[in-house]
Structure formats: structure tokens, C-alpha cells
Amino acid sequence: MWILAFSIYAACKWVTWRRWQPHIAHPGWRSMAYLLAWPGMDAHSFLDTSSRATSPPLGAWLRSIFLTALGATLLWAGARTISESRTLLRGWTGMLGAILMLHFGSFKLAALLWQTVGVKATPIMATPLRSASLRDFWGRRWNLGFHQLAFDFVFIPIRKKLGSGLAAFLVFLVSGVIHDLVISVPARGGFGLPTLYFAIQGMGVAIERSRIGKLLGLRQGIRGWLFMAVVTASPVFWLFHPAFVLRVIIPFMKAVHAL
User: Fold this and answer.
1) Same structural domain for residues 155 and 245?
2) Overall number of domains in the chain
3) Among 26, 41, 228, 255, which residue has the fewest nearby CB atoms (within 10 Å)?
4) DSSP summary character for residue 133
5) What is the pLDDT of residues 151-199, one digit of tens each?
6) What is the DSSP letter of 22?
7) How far apart are CA 32 and CA 28, in angstroms?
């Protein structure tokens, strides 16, 4: 899994860098830093030296350090407290710990470090639990690295031909196929479930944008948040299906001595 995931990630980094590198005047070290020391995909902002990021507040550092420590604790200690007979729960605990430690913790710390030296590095995760709607969750708060990539290379090229609604749905399908590649293929099972998960997300966004969604108040407030929570969380076991947890996550946890 990790070789396949890193290969796709490295290819995406190279494509985004090649798109903007010739058009933005910047010192060579920024290109190296973007390719090797930053997980985001917004090459334009990272390479651009015409504007500087403001220094992040202390609270942002403390939250990121806390989430990194919490994730590490769940991965290397929390999973061990669960009975060996509850393998799936052990795997989910470790996987949650890894997500907190990386995406919400260390990746955010990397963003803060770059911001401290003036580089505009937008954190990959932007407090997704504060999402006011499903569209807000996927478009502005969750995994902004992939969102930037999909927006630039999938949504924009096909929007004029197919319209915004269908283009957005196809972005979700592309995301599903990519997740099937890095989740189901290494797990040798659960094929199509990650794609189905993202198809549901696309349909949810379409419902939210529809006249019915507007009448039901699904675009904002508590109703928008509840709709987002139900649509993203209810089918999450299709995204990270049992074959992936048992055949990829559990062996990974054993390899890093978390079990």
C-alpha cells in the first residue's frame, strides 16, 4: 500500500510543481522544500514570494502538539488496551491515531513552521468538525491537498463542458477510484466500496445544492452540520472496509510495534 500511495503522491507533487514552477519567480530552495518537505498540493501559494504568511499564534502550536501526542498515544498505547479478539476495533483505533498524528498533528506543525518563516503553507485539514455543510466539509476543510489537485486538474477542465454539478460529482468518482487503488488493491478485497463511498458524498452534495436541500436548510446551521455528519460518517466502513483494516492496517501496526 505504502509504495503505491507514495508513488501516486509523488506524481501529483511533480505535476503541480511543473505547472507553476516556470511561471513564478522564486529561489530554488522553495522548489526543493515544496517537493520534499511539504505535503500540500498548492504549489502556487508555496512558491510565490510576493506575499508573506503571518506568524501563527501560540494556540495553533499547542493544539497541533496535543493532537500529535494524542494520535501517537492511540496508535502505540490505546490499541494495546483492546482485547486481541476485537481485531477490527484495534485496527480502527490505530488508524484513527495515525490520522490524528499525521493529518491533524505533524502536517499542521509543518504548516506552522513554514508560516513562521513567511511561506504561505495552508494546513491540509482546516477544522473539519466546524463544517457548516457537506460542501463546506469537502470543499474547504477536509484534505485540502487533494481538493486543490482535483479542482485544478479535474473540475476546472470539465466544468465548461458538463456544468458545475456533474463536474463536481465526477471529482468524487475520481477520488473514489484513487482510494480504491490505495485501499482495496493492497487489501485484495473490498473492491468498489471506496468508490461507492465517494459516490454517496457526491450525491449528498447534489442534494444539498438542490431546491429540496435549500428548503430543508441543509446548507448551513445545525441542519447542515447534521447532514454533513450523517453522510460522511454513516458509510465510512465502506471507505475503510474490513479487508483494509485486517490486511493492511493491522500488519502496519505490528511493523511499527504498535501491537
Assistant:
1) yes
2) 3
3) 255
4) S
5) 888 888 888 888 888 999 999 999 999 999 999 999 999 999 999 999 9
6) G
7) 7
